[in-house]
Amino acid sequence: MSGTTCGASEPGCVWKAGVSIRYDITSRHAFWWEQHFPRWEMHTFRVFQRFVRPGAVVLDAGGWIGSTALWLAERARKVVVLEPGDRAFEELLLHVAQNPTRRSRLSLLRAALGPKRGLVQMTNRGDSADQVGVFDRQEGILSSVFGINDLLYAFPELEDVSFIKIDVEGSERDIIPAMTDFLRRKRPVMLLSIHPHALMDDELSKLIGELRALCPQLYSFHWNMSRWWLRDFQFTYRQIVAMPEVADPADDALCTWEPLPADALQVDDE
Asked: In what residue span(s) does the Methyltransferase FkbM domain sit (predicted)?
């Protein structure tokens, strides 16, 4: 277990997968942190517990309001966080300020990860479903995009990256092919969220083919007997026309370079 334990009835503090995380109680998502975060995406944090070693260098693409980065920064030496949305990024800063001992281990960039440096339109609602490359007449913004080589120049620590989390609401279709050479060279464990609602059928098929060609071992997640298990990746090809209301691990993919046992995520309970 890590971090200063939350005090009894302490406002603005939650316990998640062995780590205490503090959040700004005046923020837009304060209720979400209190009521939903403790049980949110439990498979994701099982992966973190298994693969993010003390002293690791991590890339968190799609940082949103810090829901993964603040946990990662308790264990890792450096976490490079990309969040392109203005509203989400401003809230991310609020929550980071509540965790001052982790600030030096966080490098925060208000930008999207993409195939190359540039600018792109995106939505700016501040929720977890903001999308790059989507025009929003009412709340849209223009965001910076960094390619992986741009990130390496800005953050040389990424030469030692050992874990990558990508959750980018459909932009994975552009990111994975652009990062293939880097991933093969560095061989980090990669947790990728795939978003069928944001991709065309041919884009999905192409992405799955690229993942299978890239990853020597590709796994998906299975909940059974009150535990998370790994199994060979089998994309469901479900028909999803809108973002699910709750996080769904059915199409998440874990890319590794060595085979893993099915019970690899069986770690000590919180």
From this structure: 145-198
